[in-house]
Write a structure and sequence with these properties.
307 residues; alpha/beta; seven-stranded mixed beta sheet; 22% helix
């Protein structure tokens, strides 16, 4: 007979492996499905400085491997498989994958979110070598240097404010002539002496050798283009949640994130959303880890009430 796990976890980032660790230590049978390798977005960060317990920082890939090893040491299982479809509305839930169908009484969705890319020449080659998507993660590398933030929403403005406290100079590049960000952000940013706005502008190319040296910026009103010398670029034009497996089954917000509060409970019983894929104010490694622990607490309560 096919095994029915107590918990099936979709995604092997910090939220997923924390859920696996807590579930295994609680005596639950748990299987984690990961398409590629442990860590998710975290594994692409070469230096994580804001995760507690590592005063010298830690490589994101190494941290991911340690999280996986710790969960598996307590009995969690990992299956490298791509999930094609989830069936979440029955007491026994199913995941159809490249390695077969798996069943469980609870499902934790930890599929994360991906930053939206600029899609300009030079972006991919300089990713992690001058091009970044998280100022809270990588901003400290640019203390005393010159950086550019691309975007005009809340995330971009928050990134620019954070960077203004560490960088020598911050350019905020926005396609429009005013910010889309909430009004409360405007005055602190306008008052920052080292922030310069490039309105009605777009980055068309990123250049340098071997690291990023600058960006070509085009004025969208007159078509003029200039080379802007910067040490780093932070792309803050939004994120895309990896929530397609939940579409048509779970309630999603307008941006596509799975609606779940701090309990991590999604809109169907026995289904939980953790980390960057759920609705939340802050998306960091430490908040994903907290979600993973909370999901197991909520799942234990759910399982205790099942026949």
């Amino acid at each position: 007979m096919k095994q029915v796990y107590d918990m099936l976890i979709i995604g092997g980032g910090p939220g997923g492996y924390t859920a696996a660790l807590y579930a295994a230590r609680a005596g639950l049978s748990v299987l984690l499905l990961e398409k590629l390798s442990a860590g998710g977005q975290m594994a692409q960060t070469t230096q994580v400085d804001n995760y507690p317990g590592f005063p010298e920082g830690v490589d994101g890939f190494l941290l991911a491997e340690k999280m996986q090893a710790q969960a598996e040491a307590f009995g969690a299982k990992t299956e490298l498989a791509e999930v094609y479809k989830l069936k979440l509305d029955a007491p026994i839930k199913e995941a159809e994958t490249s390695e077969g169908t798996f069943q469980a009484r609870t499902v934790v969705i930890a599929t994360g979110a991906n930053p939206r890319l600029l899609g300009v020449p030079g972006e991919q080659p300089f990713s992690g070598r001058g091009v970044h998507y998280c100022a809270a993660c990588d901003g400290m590398f640019y203390r005393g240097k010159t950086v550019a933030v691309i975007g005009g929403g809340n995330s971009a403005v928050a990134d620019a404010l954070l960077l203004s406290r560490v960088a020598k100079k911050v350019y905020l590049i926005h396609r429009r002539d005013s910010l889309r960000a909430t009004q409360i952000y405007h005055k602190p940013l306008m008052d920052a002496p080292n922030v310069e706005f490039l309105w009605n502008s777009a980055v068309t190319e990123l250049f340098g050798e071997p690291r990023l040296a600058g960006a070509k910026v085009q004025n969208l009103l007159n078509g003029n283009e200039m080379d802007l010398e910067v040490d780093g670029v932070f792309v803050s034009i939004g994120r895309s949640p990896a929530s397609s497996l939940a579409e048509g089954q779970l309630v999603l917000d307008n941006a596509g994130y799975i609606v779940a509060d701090e309990s991590t409970k999604a809109s169907l019983p026995g289904v939980f959303a953790v980390g960057d894929v759920r609705t939340k104010a802050l998306r960091q490694i430490v908040t994903a880890v907290a979600d993973g622990a909370m999901a197991v607490h909520s799942a234990e309560e759910y399982l205790a009430g099942q026949p």
